[in-house]
Q: What sequence folds into this?
């Protein structure tokens, strides 16, 4: 340090101009910053790979309602009718899967005829007469209501399926199926009306002269960034939010299809009007993609999550698809998608069938022949999509080293009773083979023992200043007192509204 006599303005300016520093003295800090930048650059690619895979999963479950479900219902009804010809040798008149298929088909048909009493045109003009601010508030309320309906709807359907197929000692106990059935019909009908109001509001936004409502509705997506980015997220929370984003994006695609169908009908199917709608459709899709990328990029940055976590999410979704094809599967794949993502295809299918039948008039033998060809095309698309998805899913499961988890038989037991000795022996043998992170998970009865994905250090992450190690140790001590974290394979849509899993 220079003495007081050597101090001068010239020396100070010279020191400021020639002063140097060495970044390698804090190499770890700058390396971490560089990795964060690389992670943000990888997020769009990894996120979109997950989104595309998830959207095709939703498409597969959605096409199942229109293609294979009617055929399965026909086969179930044919078996029920021809059962006396084969004699009553079997204890069950129908298999549980066939009973569920019949209920799905009956609910779909009943809700379709109930939707005929809802006037779409009157609803359109009623919504169009409202002010822009009212419509903006209505659209936000509809989004919240849709999440609430999706969160509770699959529970209603699962309750119906289990009540109808569970083993019963007395025939009188089967009376409980009737109230569950009416609850399911009421839910699907109300949810279909809710989605119709959403589609109508979006249609009004497309047809407004100054496009102000459409701009406001698109800006609402950016408000989602404010509500998500500055929160603490763990891997399980981010997985749940990713599933919700997949479901939301696919639902928006179907809503845009409904809007285009209604507008094309009003303009007598003039193809020139489709190009008028095309820029607005692209703008809505682009805003959704941009919001998802920005949201996930900053969430992973603030919470120190690597981009490789999306590969784990994709492997978990692929595991659901592959496990549903096993002989010991305990659920249908469409129901598995509903539980995982909160995407329930029945209400959306009811609305789309209602819109298509009211927009497209079928007259003459040639028109019916075109309908048959279109249906065959849908079946071909469904089969092709299922084959490609199954192949990709097997590839993702193999890359994640999850093949052994597919062959774990589910333990059997009755609710409220402990498992017997054979199950306990099986459990102990599995605990010896599985890692400690798996054996710490509680074993649910009537469900398969699903091992956990390999955990990494990214399970505990917080954005902390450099050198601040006290917060990390405090968080580690708090995590010891928490209950065991949920496995990615066990996460469903129970907390889809808040996207939080405690």
A:
């Amino acid at each position: 340090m220079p003495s007081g006599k050597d101090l001068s303005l010239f020396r100070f300016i010279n020191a400021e101009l020639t002063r140097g520093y060495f970044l390698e003295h804090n190499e770890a800090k700058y390396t971490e910053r560089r990795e964060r930048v690389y992670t943000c650059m990888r997020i769009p690619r990894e996120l979109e790979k997950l989104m595309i895979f998830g959207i095709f999963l939703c498409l597969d479950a959605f096409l199942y309602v229109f293609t294979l479900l009617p055929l399965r219902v026909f086969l179930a009804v044919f078996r029920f009718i021809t059962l006396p010809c084969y004699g009553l040798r079997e204890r069950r008149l129908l298999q549980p899967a066939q009973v569920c298929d019949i209920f799905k088909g009956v609910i779909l048909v009943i809700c379709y005829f109930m939707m005929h009493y809802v006037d779409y045109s009157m609803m359109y003009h009623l919504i169009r007469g409202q002010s822009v601010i009212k419509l903006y508030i209505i659209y936000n309320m509809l989004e919240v209501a849709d999440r609430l309906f999706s969160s509770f709807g699959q529970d209603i359907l699962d309750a119906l399926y289990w009540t109808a197929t569970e083993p019963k000692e007395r025939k009188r106990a089967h009376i409980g199926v009737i109230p569950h059935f009416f609850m399911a019909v009421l839910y699907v009908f109300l949810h279909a009306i809710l989605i119709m109001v959403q589609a109508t509001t979006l249609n009004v936004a497309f047809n407004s002269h100054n496009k102000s409502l459409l701009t406001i509705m698109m800006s609402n997506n950016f408000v989602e960034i404010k509500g998500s980015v500055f929160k603490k997220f763990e891997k399980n929370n981010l997985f749940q939010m990713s599933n919700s984003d997949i479901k939301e994006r696919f639902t928006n695609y179907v809503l845009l299809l409904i809007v285009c169908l209604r507008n094309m009908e009003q303009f007598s199917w003039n193809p020139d009007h489709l190009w008028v709608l095309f820029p607005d459709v692209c703008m809505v899709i682009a805003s959704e993609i941009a919001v998802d990328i920005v949201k996930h990029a900053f969430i992973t940055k603030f919470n120190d999550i690597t981009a490789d976590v999306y590969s784990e999410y994709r492997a978990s979704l692929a595991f659901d698809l592959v496990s549903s094809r096993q002989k010991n599967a305990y659920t249908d794949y469409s129901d598995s998608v509903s539980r995982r993502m909160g995407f329930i295809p029945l209400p959306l299918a009811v609305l789309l069938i209602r819109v298509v039948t009211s927009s497209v008039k079928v007259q003459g033998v040639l028109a019916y022949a075109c309908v048959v060809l279109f249906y065959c095309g849908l079946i071909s698309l469904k089969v092709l999509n299922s084959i490609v998805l199954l192949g990709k899913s097997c590839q993702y499961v193999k890359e994640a080293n999850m093949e052994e988890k597919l062959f774990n038989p589910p333990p059997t037991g009755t609710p409220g009773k402990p498992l017997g000795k054979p199950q306990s022996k099986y459990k102990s043998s599995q605990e010896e083979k599985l890692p400690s992170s798996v054996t710490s998970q509680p074993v649910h009865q009537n469900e398969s023992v699903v091992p956990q994905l390999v955990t990494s250090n990214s399970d505990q992450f917080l954005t902390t200043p450099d050198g601040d190690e006290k917060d990390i140790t405090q968080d580690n001590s708090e995590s010891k007192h928490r209950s065991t974290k949920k496995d990615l394979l066990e996460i469903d849509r129970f907390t889809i509204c808040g996207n939080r899993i405690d």
About this structure: The CA atoms of residues 418 and 445 lie 9 Å apart. The two ends are 56 Å apart (CA to CA).
